[in-house]
Design brief:
This protein is α/β, with parallel strands linked by helices. It has eight helices and five strands, in the order βαβαααβαβααβα. The longest helix has 24 residues. Bound molecules: adenosine monophosphate.
């Protein structure tokens, strides 16, 4: 089992890269799952779309620009890992999780229960100026208002840097972090990620 955590600010392409990893047959055992991509953001949005009581609570929380509770995020991750066979899966890609120290501890417990470990933490790095250009360009092309307001985009980038720092440091201390240069084509970045995972 190989377990990967993928980190990076909004716009670094970590969702796209995670999906490519999940589709890569190289990581799939016979009749196995391959990498299972777990994005807490996607899971939360699916819950919101279902408009359940929990979904409505999540919508209110996100509209305030806040994180959902560790309990909600963690239980979603737990359910999803078990849905995909738990310890029997070929591996998981955790995208958008963990975001807090409490979630780090929770994930440790889940992975230990699988008698496995976190093998690598990919940190996709894109220079702030380039990231800003990239997000604004996409915002205009895809008509996403939240990605066209320069001040808001900068604020979000700063928030991410401040909030992800403790989690990133924890994994750096464990020697698990590999910084991936996120500047280049999608293909180039994917190659770098593959090399990091396979140790080439
Ligand atoms: P993302 O798509 O990863 O940017 O997530 C969108 C939003 O979902 C975030 O701004 C948070 O409000 C919430 N969220 C996603 N993952 C987590 C998490 N691990 N813990 C708490 N809130 C989260």
């Amino acid at each position: 089992m190989i377990n990967v955590i993928i980190m990076g600010a909004h716009g670094t392409g970590k969702g796209t890269q995670s999906k490519r990893l999940a589709a890569n047959p190289h990581f799939k055992s016979e009749n196995g799952t391959g990498f299972v991509h777990i994005s807490t953001g996607e899971l939360l949005r699916a819950e919101m779309a279902d408009n359940t009581e929990l979904g409505q609570h999540i919508t209110e929380t996100m509209n305030k620009g806040e994180y959902v509770s560790d309990a909600i995020a963690s239980s979603m991750v737990m359910n999803k890992t078990h849905l995909h066979g738990g310890y029997k899966a070929d591996g998981f890609i955790f995208d958008g999780f963990p975001r807090t120290e409490e979630q780090v501890t929770f994930l440790d417990r889940v992975i230990t229960s699988f008698k496995a470990e976190i093998n690598i933490v990919l940190n996709i790095v894109v220079d702030g100026k380039i990231l800003l250009e990239r997000i604004m360009e996409r915002g205009a092309k895809e008509n996403r208002p939240e990605d066209q307001d320069k001040k808001l985009v900068i604020k979000r980038m700063k928030t991410y840097a401040a909030e992800s720092a403790p989690v990133l440091n924890t994994y750096r201390e464990r020697g698990l972090v590999v910084d991936i240069d996120g500047v280049g084509t999608e293909e180039e970045v994917y190659e770098r990620i593959l090399n990091a995972i396979t140790g080439e």
